[in-house]
User: What shape does this take?
Amino acid sequence: MQSLGQQLVIAAIPVIPLVVFFVLALFGRLLRENAQYVAIFGMVFSVVFSFFALYLVIRDGRPLEFSVYWINLGEGGGFPIGVYIDELAAVMLVVVSFVSLMIQLYSGGFMAGDRRFAWYYAVLNLFTASMLGLVVAPNFIELYICWELVGLCSYLLIGHWFEKPAARDAALKAFIVTRIGDAALFVGIIMFWRATGTTAFEGIAEAAQAGFIGGSLLTAAVVLVFVGAIGKSAQFPLHVWLPDAMEGPTPVSALIHAATMVAAGVYLVARTYDIFVQSPTAMLIVAYIGAFTAFMAATMALVKKDIKRVIAYSTVSQLGYMMLGLGVGAFSAGMFHLYNHAFFKALLFLCAGSIIHAMDSYNLFEMGGLRRRMPLTFWTMVIAGLSLAGIFPLAGFWSKDAIIASAFEEHYYVLYALAIGTVFLTAFYIFRAIFLAFTGEPRTEGAARAVESPGVMTVPMVILAVLSVASGWVGIPEGFGLPVRDYFGGFVAPSGFARETLEVEPHGFSFLLAAISVLVGLAGIGLAYAMYVARPALAPAMARRLFGLHTFLDKGWYFDALYGATFVRAAFAVGRAVQGFDREVLGGLVGGIARGTGRLGEALRRVQTGRVQNYALFIVVSVLVLAIVAGAQYAVIVAALIALVTLATLAVGARL
Amino acid sequence: MTVAFAFLTGMTLVSALGVVLSRSVVHSALFMSGAFLGVAGFFVMLNVPVLAAFQVLIYVGAVTVVILFGIMFTQRPQVRRFRTIINRQIWPGFFAAAGVGAFLCYILATEGWGETGPGNGARSVAVLGRSLLGVDEGLEIFSLLFEAASVLLLVALVAAIAISRRKEGAGGGEAGR
Amino acid sequence: MQQLVEQLNAQIPLEGYLTVAAIMFAIGAWGALIRRNAVVVFMCVELMINAVNLTLVAFADFLPGAGGAGAGYAVLIIAIAAAEVAVGLAIVLAIFRTRRTVNIDEVDSLRG
Assistant: This one.
């Protein structure tokens, strides 16, 4: 058990950014440009505390956990809210808080002069708080709450420049598509809760081990949870929102759509790994979807003009790798790739942001020759690109190669083929982007006049570049021959139960497989060089001749068109039907009542003739009726008489 | 007795019908005084000749004259057709009034009024006068009502003058209270 | 013959007077509802008042418990009815002056 002081410190990790959110939301208008200092001040504490938590986990060797009862349902159990930090969560805490700090530093320069500067920082901090809360969640409920909050912040940040209709649409698209995943996730949570009576991860895992959940039910629930992960991590078929999410500010893309939020899906699978491994079907689904997404997204990135979209598709592709890793049982490799990817992908986005900040354009074909004008951006981007392509000895190599090797060694040859193909495509498209942007001659005025970005932006880039190179060195496998241990793999490992269930034997380091993947990567870079530096006319010619294929890839395999024609049109049709019902039936009903009352009033108006004798007649008749009612013996006679008299009076009165 | 009763009944009811159905307003007024006389006869049969005298004096003497005055001031040419004097409510009115009359007859005739016999009321003027103005016990509060009626008469007098005064524009413009 | 004379000399029961009064009331009500001339309507109202008077006096004579109070009421009603005629005719005259008509079908400005 931790002391109260330690508990407070650990609880403060997600709470500090939350407090900063409230402060900035309330006082943003006063603070304006000073909002960044408030935010960074708070974030530094979160980072330090995250390192402290990591230190505690390393020192104690077991997870930190404490919780309080939030909703107590008595007999039905309850939902506690608290903290569960094991090795995986500790690493994620450090990654998330550190990258968030880098982004917040960078945003000070990028978003300078923005109209809603303080609000941007407020939502960014709310996002960080939610993501940290998601990481430390001990049960599905807290995870789901933070999951939804993260989605909300993504919506708010993508749509930060809501004056642009494209940004509004993109934010809505992101929210709606991830909502589909969230709904499936929620159904999965309910299924688990019904079957086991608890929503805590540990509880569900134990119940699953003990066999409380039937086989098909378990698979179904776990697949539903995975669908939630698909939505959040932009895997096939819910990948369509991520490229459009690039309408948001570039630091947002770096933080949310590269390093953290999209990693939440992978994190969810890792968190519930003990449950996943009990369903081989689910594992296969995860692996195949991951590999397919990796390949598909890489093909789509080949032909994009917008540099941010290239990087966005790259994110989708790399997340596919992580899912592939988890699916074939390479838990440590998958999480290792998540950890490395956070750094070099964030760096790639920051470089793109630096270019955009300098020349105000995303279009690769408007850039060119920036190598001489923005050298720092150039070199950091090259480093990030090499790490992404998995070139030895940078960080990306160690994790990506581990995944690919596991796929091969577990005899998933189809997945191996897809993965290797994707390595080639990845190297090609990222260096296509780099060569188009930085080599050759400037293609436009803007490119000719670009200058390097200010220090507040380049310092985080440099830090992340160093990490892109070195972060993988904590995970060098032993077979490589260096006197270092695989710290990461030893630290972030699946539980003993998972290991037994998977029956994965640890493989030694295979030089052959590593060499193959590095060579394939270099080949990709070489082809990019050939097509875009040595013979620049080759690419447009190919595009013209392979026009059908080019368009197919450019339109994202026509997924947007497909979804638009089916779901979107159906949804709009339903909406129109409901609107019609509301207008015609309900509106008509209400209007009809009003009109009917009016007409009744008009009809009754004719009784008011203004003539005293008419009124006197009505009075006499009424007295007569009352007298009969009071004095009569038989109710039927009374009723008949009253009806007769009333009808007669109305008939007469209408003609008066 | 019966003969007298039958005669008075016929006179009263025929006069009443004459009021309603006469085409000339003056004929209606005269029929009305005929009805008043019939009622006065009934009062005599009911052992209150005092009231019969009052009836003749006030109703036949004063009210008829006042009404004739009113008719004179609102002179209209005599009409030829029945339709002109009767409005469209003739049949609904007939049934309503007939219904009321039938109902009243039914109730009044079938209700048991207990041990009744003529001759229970005041016979002489002295008795009536004392009952109207006296304050002995056993008598009702007629003295108060008497005074209230006097006030009412005064008010009515003033009101009638005020309403029918021909002032410059104002009195004639009032469309009644 | 003796029976006929006896019959002719018989007392009129209370219900007789009441029935006559009721019929007179009904005729007066009918007239008040159907005549167009305001003064004639007035006259019909007087008929109704007289019917009520007759009823009151009949009860005063026949019912022992009332102590002859009905006659007193009748006197007061006569007085009040006379006052009402005066005021009512004043009103009719006032209307006649402005609208030049005593046809109460035409006094319908509160119509609708």
About this structure: Chain C has a mean pLDDT of 86.
